[in-house]
């Protein structure tokens, strides 16, 4: 694995255009499971933890979107730091995939940091939308930025988690969201990580590709999120454009080269299809990470970059990268 601790300058337009067009086709296949709905009983009235420090708990947190389920593993020794883990495009309604597709809980079980895994947010990019999606008759307006930066930290403060001592890491859709949220809310987040994230939203073809991907993942209308392609919402949510907001923030950015490795062993036709899709998606993520590296380098903004020698767009690889980032996260958060 090659690890680089430096930053970035100019993107390769022709390659990005070709690969972004590839994304619009590959995302039609998808690599994540279907959304599973679950009822949300109101358990938000009690501020007391029902498990000891270091234990696991599921909370229902009030929000403008209704009660949101949040999976929590409390800091091992009562520390007030938290690590938010954001899901991908096909985020489920019953569980955050970090809790069962990876060993994240085991990785941080003995550390003095609380894992915070919000549930839901399919195709949301964890942002505040302009309106409900009209293509799928969405009953609410997504307000994920408000939830993650106001409602949830205020709620967790009642459990001893600091609203201003947080790290945030996401994969794919969640990777770009992690950098956006950290950039716009520096008072809350002290560290941000993007694993295989699409962090150059303004690259040629990306807006069209995101439109196709969101329609495929739940029939969501992207115009309800950031407006039509010429709207300012697209610029506000592009980490590449807003890189200056990240100056001084410790970051971990990773992407593999799309070559299947030890974790990628397909054996059925569906698995071969998913592997092929994951190869293309990860290659595009690599183009984004490399261009972001040059962008930061040109601005004199340091960050940690990880470019493994193999790996596709898959949970096994993100689990490994979360482990690689663990030391930096715990150092920044003083949470060993």
Keywords:
9 strands; globular; 336 residues; nine-stranded mixed beta sheet; alpha/beta; 9 helices
Task: Give the secondary structure arrangement, pairings included.
Blueprint: E1 2-4, H1 13-29, E2 56-61, E3 68-73, E4 82-86, H2 104-107, E5 114-118, H3 144-157, E6 166-171, H4 173-184, E7 189-195, H5 206-216, H6 223-226, H7 232-236, E8 251-254, H8 269-299, E9 304-307, H9 315-333
Parallel strand pairs: 4-5, 4-6, 6-7, 7-8, 8-9
Antiparallel strand pairs: 1-9, 2-3, 3-5
Helix pairs in contact: 1-5, 1-8
Shape assignment? globular
Q: Low-confidence stretches at least 5 residues in length (pLDDT < 50)?
A: 1-46
- What is the helix/strand order? EHEEEHEHEHEHHHEHEH
Number of helices: 9
Q: Could you characterize the architecture of this molecule?
A:
The protein is α/β, with parallel strands linked by helices and 336 residues long. The chain contains nine helices and nine strands. The chain has helices at 13-29, 104-107, 144-157, 173-184, 206-216, 223-226, 232-236, 269-299, 315-333, and strands spanning 2-4, 56-61, 68-73, 82-86, 114-118, 166-171, 189-195, 251-254, 304-307. It has a nine-stranded mixed beta sheet, sandwiched between helices. Helix 1 packs parallel to helix 5 and helix 1 packs antiparallel against helix 8 (269-299). It is globular, with a radius of gyration of 19 Å. 49% of the residues are buried.
């Amino acid at each position: 694995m090659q690890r680089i601790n430096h930053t970035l300058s100019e993107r390769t337009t022709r390659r990005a255009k070709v690969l972004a067009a590839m994304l619009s086709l590959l995302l039609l296949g998808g690599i994540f499971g279907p959304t599973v709905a679950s009822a949300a009983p109101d358990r938000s009235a009690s501020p007391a933890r029902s498990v000891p420090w270091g234990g696991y708990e599921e909370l229902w947190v009030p929000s403008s979107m209704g009660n949101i389920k949040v999976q929590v593993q409390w800091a091992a020794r009562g520390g007030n730091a938290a690590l938010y883990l954001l899901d991908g495009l096909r985020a489920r309604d019953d569980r955050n995939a970090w809790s069962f597709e990876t060993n994240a809980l085991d990785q941080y079980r003995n550390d003095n940091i609380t894992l915070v895994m919000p549930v839901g947010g399919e195709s949301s990019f964890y942002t505040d939308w302009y309106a409900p999606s009209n293509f799928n008759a969405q009953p609410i307006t997504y307000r994920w930025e408000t939830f993650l930066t106001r409602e949830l930290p205020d709620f967790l403060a009642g459990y001893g988690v600091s609203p201003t001592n947080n790290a945030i890491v996401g994969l794919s859709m969640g990777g770009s969201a992690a950098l956006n949220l950290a950039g716009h809310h520096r008072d809350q987040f002290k560290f941000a990580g993007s694993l295989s994230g699409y962090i150059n939203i303004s690259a040629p073809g990306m807006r069209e590709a995101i439109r196709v991907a969101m329609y495929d993942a739940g029939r969501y209308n992207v115009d309800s999120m950031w407006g039509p392609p010429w709207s300012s919402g697209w610029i506000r949510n592009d980490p590449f454009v807003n890189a200056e907001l990240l100056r001084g923030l410790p970051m971990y950015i990773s992407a593999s080269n799309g070559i299947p490795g030890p974790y990628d062993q397909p054996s059925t036709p569906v698995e071969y299809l998913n592997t092929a899709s994951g190869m293309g998606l990860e290659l595009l993520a690599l183009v984004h990470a490399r261009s972001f590296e040059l962008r930061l380098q040109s601005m004199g903004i340091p960050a940690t970059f990880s470019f493994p020698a193999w790996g596709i767009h898959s949970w096994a690889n993100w689990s490994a990268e979360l482990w690689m980032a663990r030391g930096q996260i715990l150092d920044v958060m003083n949470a060993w």
